[in-house]
User: Fold these one by one.
Assistant:
Number 1:
Amino acid sequence: MPALLVRDLAQVVSPAGVGAPLRRRALAEVRVLERGYVLCENGRIAAVGSMADLDQASLPNDLVELDGRGRAAVPGLVDCHTHACFAGDRAAEFELRSRGASYEELHAAGAGILATVRAARAAGRDGLERALERHRTWMLAHGTTTFEAKSGYGLDAETEVAQLEAVAAAGGVPTWLGAHAVPPEFEEADAYLDFALRDVLPAAARIAEAADVFLERGAFDAGQARRYLEACREAGLALRLHADQFTEAGGVPLAVELGARSVDHLEATGPAGVAALAASGVTAVLLPVAALFLDRPMPPARALVDAGASVALATDFNPGSAFCESLPVVMSLACTQLRLAPAEALTAATVNAAHVLGRGDRLGRLEPGYAADLVLLDAPDWRYLAYHLGGEDVAVVVKEGEVAWER
Ligand code: NIG
Ligand code: FE
C-alpha cells in the first residue's frame, strides 16, 4: 500500500492530553496545528507536523497526496455504543410514540426490542450482514472509522452468534448483549438466563470482546445482571451495562464493584451515582440522541465531567430509541444539551471512546503510532463538526491510511 500524505491542511486537531481516558481539564485540551500535514504509512500515522517543517526529500517514493486546503482534519470518530446489526425498522412504532405511546409500554406489549428480535430472526445471517453493511456505510459517511455493535436482537443461540459474526466480519467490535430482553419462548428472566449462559455464552465469548446487559425495570434486575456479568467475566469478556436509562436500579454500584469498562445511558443517575463514577475507573457513556429521541431528561454530563469521571459519547444507533448514526449530531447535542465544550465532545467521541473499546493506546488521536484514521472536514474550523447541526461537512474519511469514503 502506498504511503498517504494529507498536505496543506488548514487545521490538524487532536486530543492533547497523555494516555486514556482523559478526565477533567485534560478532556478539554485539544491541540490545533494550523497549516499542517499528516503522513500515513502502513496503516499508521508516521508523522504530523507543520507544512513549514515538511522535508520533501525524506518522503517515501511510493506516495499518494491528498489536498487538505480549506479543510480541518480530526481523528476518525469512534462509536463505542451501537446496535447497528439490526434488520427492519420501527417506523410504525415511531408514529405510535409521536401520538403518545411510551417506549416502555410498547416494550411491555411485545413491540419495541422484541419486534426487532422477530425481524432479526427472520433476516438470518445473510439478511443481517446486508443490513449491517448498509448501516456501516452510513456511519462511515458521518466520520465513524471504528464502531462497536451489540447483539441482543437474536436472543437465541443461532441469531446471537450470527449477529456477532456479522459485526466482526464488517470490521466492528462485537459485544454480546445476551441480556437485552426476555424472548417470547421464555416466561421468566431467570430461565432465559439459564439458557443464555449455558447455550450461548461459550460461543459468544469466542467472538465478542465484551458483554452487556439492559439493567432496567421490565428488563433485568440488579441480581440478574450480576449473575450474567459474573459468568461473562469468568468467560474472559470485558463488562458493560445499560443502566439508569429510566430508573436508578443499582447499575452504577454494580458496574463499579465489578470493574466494568463502562456504564451507558445514565439519564436517571443522581448525585450519588455521579460521585461513585467519578471515584471509579468505569467510563460513563453518554447517549444524548437516545434521551432526545425518547423525550427523556439528558444525563448529568457536566456534573460527571466536573467531578472527574471518565466520559465518552456514542450514538446508541438502533431502530427504536436512537435511529441516528451520526456522531457529529451527538457532539452537537453534547454542546447544546449536555453543556460540554466542543473540545470535550471531540475527546469523548475519539480517544475516550477508544478506551471503552480497549483501544485507547492506538485509536482516537492524530499522533505518530496511532491508526491512520482521519476525517477531513470541508470547514474552516474543526468546531463545525459540532457547531453545524446536521451539517454535511465530512468531506473525506481515511481508514488505515486509505480513502474509505468521499462525499
Ligand atoms: O440502548 N435500552 C435498551 N436498548 C437500546 C434500545 C434497543 C431498541 O430499542 O431496539 C438502547 O436504547
Ligand atoms: Fe443501547
Number 2:
Amino acid sequence: MKDINTARTDFPILAREVNGKPLVYLDNAATMQKPQAVIDAVSRVYTDYNSNIHRGTHFLSNVCTGEFENAREKIQKFINARNSYEIIFTRGTTEAINLVANTFGDNFLSEDDEVIVSELEHHSNIVPWQLLRERKGIKLKVIPLNEDGELVLDEYYGMLNEKTRLVAVAHVSNALGTVNPVKEIIEAAHKMNAKVLIDGAQAVHHFPVDMRELDADFYVFSGHKLYGPTGIGVLYGKEELLNKMPPWHGGGEMIKNVTFEKTTYNELPFRFEAGTPDYAGAIGLGAAVDYLSSYSWEDIVGYEKELLDYATEKLSAIDGLKIYGTAEKKSGVVSFLVGKIHPYDMGVMLDKLGIAVRTGHHCAQPVMDRYGIPGTVRASFAIYNTKEEVDKLVDGIEKVKKIFG
Ligand code: PMP
C-alpha cells in the first residue's frame, strides 16, 4: 500500500500557480484533480490502441474492447457488485438518475405512486423525479432536514406506506457534507417493498461502499469526482431489476436484431449503453479506481477525517464565521458564511490568493432555502489536500474580512 502522505506528488496540476500564488485547490466536491496514472491511461488509449469497441474483428478493436470491459470489472470489484453486467456506463450521476427515472419510473410507477427524496438532494436527484411527476402524476415526498443538516428519520419512517415505490437519497450531501444513514433508509424502504436509489456522487471516493452489504437497488456516481475523467459515470443496478427495465436510449450496441417491423434488445449491460460509449473515459475511470485502491481505505478515511476536523476547528475559530452543516457524521465538505460578506465576494477574493473554493447554492437550492440563505462558501477536500492549505484558507478569509471591514 502506498503512503497517503505522498499522494499530492501524483497530481501534476497541484504544482501550478494561480494568480502568482501556489494553487490551493479546495473545490473537490465539484470535481477532483486527476493523478498522472489516470492522465496516462487516457492518453495511452489514443496513442496506443484507439479503436471503436465491440464487434471489431481487428487487433486494435479487440485490445480496446478488452480494456473497456476490464474497467467494468474493476468498478464491479470496487463497489463489490455481484456481477460486472450490473455496472452500466453512463455520462455521470445525472444521466444515471435520469435513466432510472425514465425506465424504472415510466414503466413501474403510475398515478399516485410515491417517490421519496430528501431536502438535501442535489438538483440531479430532484428534477428527474419532478419530470416523472409531470409525465405520470406520481407524488413526490421530501424528508426534511434538522438544523444540523441531518435527515429527520422519524419523518421518513412516517412517510413510508404501501404507495411508496422508490426512495432516492444522497449518500453524502455535496452542500453540507452530511453522511446519511443509507443502510437504515434502505432497510426501512425494503420493508415496504419500495426500491432505493442512492446518489453516491460524493461518497465513493471518501469511504468504501459495498453493494452486497448496502443492498441498494440502484447506486450511481460520476467518474470525475472519483479522480477519474469527465463524461463517464456509473449506474449500478440489481440484475433482476435491470432485466425488467426497458431500454432508454435507442441506437447501436443496445440491440440484438433490427428489422423495420420489430427490434429486439441486447442483454445487460449493453441494453443500456446505446451508441459508442466513452470508452477512453471508462478506461480512465478503471485507472482511477486502481489508483485509489493503491491506498488503504483506513488511511484515506483517517487522513480525510483529520483534515476535515482540522478545517472545522480552524474555521470555527474565525470571528463571525458560521458553518452550515454540523451533522455528527460528515465527509469532505465545510460550507460556511462570514458575517455579511457575500459568498461570491469571498470566492473572488480568495481566488486572488490562489485559493479555489466554490460559492453559491451548489445545485442544492432547497438546502439554502432551509437555512434562509442565498448560498455558502464551500471548501471541500481530497486526499492531496494538507493542513497547510487549510491554514492558507483561514489566513485568506481573515484578509478578506479586513478588506470588507
Ligand atoms: N449528486 C451529487 C450529490 C453531486 O454532488 C453531484 C455533482 N455536484 C451530482 C449529483 C451530479 O453529478 P454530475 O454533474 O457529475 O452528473
